[in-house]
Amino acid sequence: MRRVVALLVLALAMFWAFAPLALAEEAAAASPAATGSKIYYYAFAALGCGLAIGLAALGTGIGQGIGLSKACEGVARNPGVSGKITTTLIIGLAMIESLAIYALVVVLIILFVNPFKL
C-alpha cells in the first residue's frame, strides 16, 4: 500500500514539474517575447499554493485530531461535564477550521491575481 501511495505522489510531483514546461512551449509558440516569465510565475504560484494549502490542511487536521482526542478523554474521565466539553470542542474546532479557510483564501488570491496587468 505504501508503494502505491509513494508512486502516486511521485506521479503527481512529476506532473507538477513537467506541466509548466509543456505549457511554456505551447505559449512560446504563440508569442515568444513575454510569455516566458508569465508561465514560470504561474507555475511557481501553483506549486507554492499547492504546498501552502497542503501544509494548512495537515496542520489543521492534526490540531483537530488532537483536540477531539483530548475531548473524548475528558468525557471518558468525567461524563458529568460532557456538555461543557462538547461546547468548547465545537468552538475550538471552528477556530481551527477557520485557519484552513484563511489559507484557502490566500491561495485563491495568489492563484487568480494577474501581476502582469499591473
Mean pLDDT: 81
Cα-to-Cα separation, first versus last residue: 48 Å
Secondary structure class reads mainly alpha
What low-confidence regions span 5 or more consecutive residues with pLDDT below 50?
none
Helix content: over 70%
Q: What is the 3D form?
A: elongated
CATH topology: F1FO ATP Synthase
Report on the biggest sheet: none
Q: Compute the number of structural domains.
A: 1
| CATH homologous superfamily placement | F1F0 ATP synthase subunit C
Radius of gyration: 21 Å
Secondary structure blueprint with pairings:
Layout (H helix, E strand, L loop, with lengths): L1 H29 L4 H43 L4 H31 L6
Helix pairs in contact: 1-2, 2-3
Can you describe this structure?
The protein is mostly helical and 118 residues long. It has a single domain (2-112), classed as F1FO ATP Synthase. It contains three helices and no strands. The mean pLDDT is 81.
Q: What is the compact description of this entry?
A:
With 118 residues, this protein is mostly helical.
For this entry, give a set of tags.
118 residues, mainly alpha, F1FO ATP Synthase, 3 helices, elongated
